[in-house]
Known about the structure:
- By secondary structure, the chain is mainly β.
- The chain contains no helices and eight strands.
- It has strands spanning about 5-10, 20, 25-30, 35-40, 45-50, 55-60, 75-80, 85-95.
Amino acid sequence: xxxxxxxxxxxxxxxxxxxxxxxxxxxxxxxxxxxxxxxxxxxxxxxxxxxxxxxxxxxxxxxxxxxxxxxxxxxxxxxxxxxxxxxxxxxxxxxxxxxxxx
Length: 102
């Protein structure tokens, strides 16, 4: 089950070397000090080229470890280890545990 919907952008320069496909499992910096894995699913396509932005969902692991940290408009980094390969601009938070209190 997806935790969030986001506009996902992959860097054209300095990020990945190859396009990303649905099922890609990078790290996401969800708080200033918590990096977690999440699985991507892209709407209307299987592959996203470098430099492109696509709408899709992210399903995170262990959301109970970082509750109430996401909101619409928050931008989180997409990383491979310490290397930033893109950004996710949150457009919807489906998992109420992750939704920051208003």
